């Protein structure tokens, strides 16, 4: 699971399919007790669907995916489930949360210090968590403010470059 904070607001009214967005990790990715990706690492994504609510009928929808994750200065292409939200048509003020993707999941691989990197396994399913998102009053548009929390699952493995181990050679003078 990759949980991020949005860096910019997204809306079914103002965003369009293909629009990029920036995010940062809301919590570190930890494997076998070892922090492999720190909290605050940058991520980027794309709006895969943005549909504004109609004047008299029609639901609004907003779907997004994560495309990349930057770890220790290296950007990695990633594939995730989509996270989305759909509002009901006129007269309905409830929002339905939807997550894309199903199938068999895989475990998250481990990391050994100075090893070949972290293999973050493909996980199935989709999830969306939002802070302050949704519908209010007569507004049927979907609005995700900056700092909204979204959760995604990887759908393809990711291998991280190993953390460089710096060996310092300190000479001790003869006494």
Key words describing this protein structure:
175 residues, eight-stranded antiparallel sheet, three-stranded antiparallel sheet, elongated, 0% helix, Lipocalin, mainly beta
Q: Major sheet: size, sense and barrel closure?
A: 8 strands, antiparallel
User: CATH architecture, please?
Assistant: Beta Barrel
Strand-pairing-aware structural class: mainly beta
Number of strands: 15
Mass-distribution shape: elongated
Give average pLDDT, whole number. Answer: 72
Q: Nearest-angstrom radius of gyration?
A: 20 Å
Strand content: 35-45%
Say what the CATH topology is: Lipocalin
Helical fraction equals: under 10%
The DSSP helix count reads 0
Separation of the first and last Cα atoms:
56 Å
Order of helices and strands: EEEEEEEEEEEEEEE
CATH class: Mainly Beta
The number of distinct structural domains comes to: 1
Low-confidence stretches: 91-138
């Amino acid at each position: 699971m990759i949980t991020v904070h949005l860096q910019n607001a997204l809306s079914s009214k103002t965003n369009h399919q293909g629009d990029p967005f920036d995010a940062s990790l809301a919590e570190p990715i930890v494997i076998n007790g070892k922090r492999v990706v720190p909290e605050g690492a940058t991520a980027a994504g794309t709006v895969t669907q943005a549909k504004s609510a109609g004047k008299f009928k029609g639901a609004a929808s907003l779907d997004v995916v994560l495309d990349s994750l930057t770890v220790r200065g290296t950007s990695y292409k990633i594939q995730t489930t989509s996270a989305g939200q759909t509002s009901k048509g006129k007269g309905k003020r409830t929002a339905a949360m939807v997550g894309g993707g199903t199938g068999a999941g895989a475990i998250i691989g481990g990391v050994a210090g100075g090893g070949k990197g972290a293999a973050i396994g493909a996980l199935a399913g989709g999830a969306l968590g939002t802070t302050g998102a949704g519908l209010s009053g007569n507004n049927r548009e979907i609005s995700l403010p900056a700092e909204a929390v979204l959760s995604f699952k990887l759908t393809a493995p990711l291998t991280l470059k190993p953390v460089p181990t710096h060996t310092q050679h300190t000479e001790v003078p003869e006494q």
